[in-house]
Amino acid sequence: MVEHFFDVERVRGSSPLPPTSIMKILAIETSCDDTAVSIVEVKGSLTKPVFKVLANNISSQIKIHRAWGGVVPSLAKREHSKNLAPLLIKSLKDANLFSDKEKTRPNFAKTKLSRAGKILERELELRKNFLQIIAKLKIPKIDAIAVTKGPGLEPALWVGINFAKALAWLWDKPLYPVNHLEGHILVTLASPIKNKIRFPLIALIVSGGHTELVLSKDWLKYKIIGRTRDDAAGEAFDKVARILDLPYPGGPEISKLAQKISAQGRPASSWKLPRPMLHSGDFDFSFSGLKTAVLYLAQKLKSENKFTEKTKAEIAFDFQESVIEVLTKKTLSACQKYKAKTIIAGGGVIANTSLRDVLQKMAEENQLQFLIPDLSYSTDNATMIALAAGLRFLASQGKISRTFKAEGNLSLK
User: Fold this and answer.
1) Which residues of 287-300 are buried (b: 16+ CB within 10 A; e: fewer)?
2) Residues near 132 by Cβ (< 8 Å), separated by ≥ 6?
3) Is residue 123 domain-shared with residue 231, that is, in the same domain?
4) What residues does 207 pair with on adjacent strands?
């Protein structure tokens, strides 16, 4: 696997590891409907961090939630409980850190096993797997555990947090609670970056639960300068998909329809949908009105027997065009106001290829550095949680805790 080195401008308070020191972080992510476990090596300093992804595993729940048209928190919680132990074992194997041979099995004190079991007392299936399988593993050569503390669905978050706490207690490892949104910003560091990262930067976070513009003048320092006042962009994609009788998740389905229209060139019969808050003079977003406009248009077309596959594709195209135009122009305006040199894009909606292309073109035209994660790291994953914990460790800002709680509405600070 390739190690990635990065040069970073104007960062203070760097706390380098010794030249030969390598920190291995096991990370867990269960903020919504993806169960994820990752192991990442961290070394270097804040001004020149080095990351190597040793394992990155995700178990998707899309098929389960599709029947309900969206994520059901109780089902997400149940599936996380089923998936975490197998994903942990697979990740340890991928990273060559796994051993379950009889002669290497630890003999934990009953008090440790009892305490770990107590932590998982509300996750019965996970508790069973933990005590019967995980507790018999040789303690892997990792240095710390990181887990998402928020934002997200609290029932889902608690499963990952309790699993991480039980592991940290049993294996006697430090535990780092991580902000999911910071992970979406920093996951770009999982991929090679050619040039020096320049500050200040504007981060655009676009997901099912969040649409935010964030100003950062140094690593790990954030100021939210704009956010959605109602629906997040990803949420709007899902709601519009339901209006158009498309399956969950809506983003990929709308993108598929929109691509059919893009391939033909914009037809004269396309429906011009509103561009909400495009000229509001601030950096906030609102997508609820756009969703309502699609609803009224679909109802009108159905009443006129004109709601065909062709008109559905045209509506999907115009809806996507509207969202992309608002996101792109607001991001550029923020860059101009704050004299930003770099744009970082993150969050599940960034997997939309049309949005990626338009942001890339906009950045090039305005001579802005543009950082975006590989598609494999665009949606929720645990590698981004490991990177956030690792960078905070290098900055001597990592907070070790075993008493934190899930925070469904956690914000960037």
Assistant:
1) beebbebbeebbee
2) none
3) no
4) none
SS3 40: strand
Q: Is residue 147 part of a domain?
A: yes
Q: Among all chains, which residue has been given the structure tokens 């008493």?
A: 403
Distance CA 3, CA 72 (A): 38
If asked whether residues 315 and 367 sit together in one domain, one would say yes
Residue type present at position 96: N
Give me the domain span that covers residue 79: 4-185+379-394
Number of H helices, E strands in the chain: 12, 11
149 and 215, same structural domain?
Answer: no
As given in the structure block, the two tokens for residue 177 are 């609670």
Summarised one tens digit per residue, pLDDT across range 218-274 is 999 999 999 999 999 999 999 999 999 999 999 999 999 998 887 676 555 567 899
Low-confidence ranges of the chain (pLDDT < 50): 1-20
Question: For the purposes of burial, counting CB atoms within 10 Å of the CB of 151, is it exposed (0-12), middle (13-18) or buried (19 or more)?
Answer: buried
Cα 136 to Cα 131, 283, 380, distances in angstroms: 8, 52, 29
Distance of CA 265 to the CA centre of its chain: 33
**Which of 333, 304, 104 has the alpha carbon at shortest distance from 225?**
333
Calculate Rg over the CA atoms of the chain.
22
Does the residue 401 lie in any domain?
A: no
223 three-state secondary structure: strand
**Cα–Cα distance, 164 to 88 (Å, whole number):** 11
